[in-house]
Design goal:
alpha+beta; 4-stranded antiparallel beta sheet; 223 residues; creatine kinase activity; 29% helix; ATP-guanido_PTrfase; 3-stranded antiparallel beta sheet
Amino acid sequence: MFIQHTPYMYVLPQEKYYPLGGMSEEEQQVLIDDHFLFDKPVSPLLLASGMARDWPDGRGIWHNDKKNFLVWVNEEDHTRVISMEKGGNMRAVFTRFCEGLKKVEDSIKTKGKAFMWSEHLGYILTCPSNLGTGLRAGVHVKLPLLCKDKRFDGILKKLCLQKRGTGGVDTASTDGTFDISNSDRLGFSEVSLVQKVVDGVKLLVNMEKKLEAGGSIDSLVPK
């Protein structure tokens, strides 16, 4: 999500904030092992927009003690707020996200600042595809059989879901494991988007189990 003017590093607790240009090699390795570290953009589109300007100044990562709530500072947007955990308890992840985001917003407001928001467009982010809620609810799920079905992409489209590799945008799956998330950002509430992911992933898993048992998924394919 997008914050106007003020960098996050002046708002978040300093003892848990790691500036990209000022951390030790040990700290950097820990962040790599935790899959928290983000890299300098290499996409010509992002570079042309000035996203890598003065890299790595003003960029960094903050996370809580449990390492299930973190904030990326000045990566693609001024801030990216993330809630995550292993397992299938999406409700707990979403609840933590909402509670943490509110605390972040309240902290920013004490500085006289706020996220950029439009009554017509919702939250204003760098990429137009993220306008609206700016929310992406993702689940890593292994679908080695279903992904070979020629209807897979069409099924995802019907469910308003999108796939990517677990390495992020523009990465492919190597073992049938995908990052499945909501394709919409605009025109729906945060709760409804998360519910679409929960319901959609449940259906995909049921399809995979059906294929594992040698059955047909024809009756499960959304019309």
